Amino acid sequence: MKIRVHVSLKPGVLDPQGRAVHHALEGLGFAGVDDVRVGRLIELDVADDTSDAALTEMCEKLLANTVIENFRIEKVA
Amino acid sequence: MAFRAAVITFPGSNCDRDMAVAIERASGSAPLRVWHADAELPERLDFIALPGGFSYGDYLRSGAMAANSPVMRGVKEQAERGVPVLGVCNGFQVLTEAGLLPGALMRNASQNFICRTVALTVENSQSLFTGGYDQGQTIRIPVAHHDGNYFADEDTLDRLEGEGRVAFRYAENCNGSRRDIAGVLNAAGNVLGMMPHPERAVDTAHGGTDGLALFEGAMRTLADA
User: Rounded to two decimals, what is the model's pTM?
Assistant: First the structure.
């Protein structure tokens, strides 16, 4: 089973990287970009019987730092 | 009895030797050197130090991999029993990732790696680690980090300040840290994490010796206990 874990900074947490990318887009002449947030995509290939609880635990224990990050688990196939 | 300290080395630690030298200079005893994969941390330790560096190449997040390495189980157990634990720079990141200290260290607000000596204010001179300083004293300690931007939510920050758990603040905020926080204590006061490197300021050849008072103060407090 293919899993995608999307990790993103929580709203309200300053994202210096996103801000730098935002500036760079403006520098390239792209208008109308209001905000940029940079996150992380982690792809897992796990056994088909892996439970949702186990996936959530993987995210909470390692893949995301829940002090500053949110995560979303997507089952691809 | 000889002072029994341990310095933990992770793959990518690079301040472990400096930390060992600083502890030996203050205590008179060379600390034990412990490798991250050692499942058993030596017992009867008086002091545990997690050094700076780039453990596991900062993969995933700074300190995230080291926080889950075998030796950290022992560090957590001993910390919960009251053994003093000092984490500097990457060691501070490991302590937050391991849940031994609140908050997180994020990328510096400037996006730049910062390597220079900064002024710190001693916010709490009553802790186990800061007895060598006066309350409100300004000290000069080197920083060298990319991810030193301390973050915690407002409630946590209020609690840390209310409980005297902010040990050090930057006199001038160099990295975007919330409320200029450079070092924090756990609730019991036996775990300190700080981004600046006191072990890099223990000899006049370093350009300053303000860091030595941290080690000497802690060793003195522990010897008197």
Answer: 0.94
